[in-house]
Amino acid sequence: MLERAEDAPAGIDAVKATGTVSKHDYETVVEPLIDAARKEGRRIKLLYEIGPDFRSFTPGAGWEDLKVGLGAMRLFEGCALVTDVGWIRESTRMMSFLMPCPVRVYGNEERAEALHWLASLPEGPGISHRARPRLGAPQRRRAAPPVDPSARPGAARPTRSPATHAPARRHRPHIRRPAVR
């Protein structure tokens, strides 16, 4: 069963899982939470608690979790998972890179620390842990190197180095030269 935890500070949505979590739980607890955030135009800082009396997710709950996650990913500002269930902790750590927001995992005794971390997150869409820009996002262009005003397009390059009068060497990284002994 999923239920809203009312003891979370303002600005943090808390959900607690106990017993067996079903599809109906997602429809009655999580979906209204996401709909309310959309209507209010705010992002979600989610504290998801899975207590020691948690037993399992039904297959329908797993499917709803996937659907809700895919449909509302961009609404999340941050997510803190509080649990001592080993397989949930490890699978969350492995899959957290797929989330568009920071995700942290805490033990049951670290709930206050999880709430503090969520409260410390800045408001707005500025948080991200992405290493690369999103596809289709405008990229900043690098400035072009300075142009020598005396150089003209099509002008021949000098064939000898002015300092030594030796032939100028051109760098060809694709050609390997044998070592001279």
Describe the structure.
The chain has 181 residues and is of the alpha/beta class. Helix content is 29%, strand content 21%. The protein has 4 helices and 5 strands; from the N terminus they run ββαβαβαβα. It has helices at residues 23-40, 59-72, 86-95, 111-120; strands spanning 2-4, 13-21, 44-57, 76-83, 103-106. Strands 1-2-3-4-5 form a 5-stranded mixed beta sheet, sandwiched between helices. Strand 4, helix 3 (86-95) and strand 5 (103-106) form a beta-alpha-beta unit. Helix 1 packs parallel to helix 2 (59-72). The protein is elongated and about 75 Å long. The model is unreliable at 126-133 (pLDDT under 50).
- Which percent bin holds the helix content? 25-40%
Q: Number of helix segments?
A: 4
Mean pLDDT: 80
User: Order of strands in the sheet with the most strands?
Assistant: 1-2-3-4-5
Radius of gyration: 28 Å
Q: What are the secondary-structure elements, in order, as H or E?
A: EEHEHEHEH
Contiguous low-pLDDT stretches (5 residues minimum) are: 126-133
Q: Into which percentage range does the β-strand content fall?
A: 15-25%
Structural class: alpha/beta
Distance between the termini: 77 Å
- Strand segment tally: 5
Which outline best applies?
elongated
> Major β-sheet, in short?
5 strands, mixed
Task: State the main characteristics.
181 residues; alpha/beta; 4 helices; 5 strands; 29% helix; elongated
Give the structure's gist in a few sentences:
The protein has a five-stranded mixed β-sheet with strand order 1-2-3-4-5, sandwiched between helices.
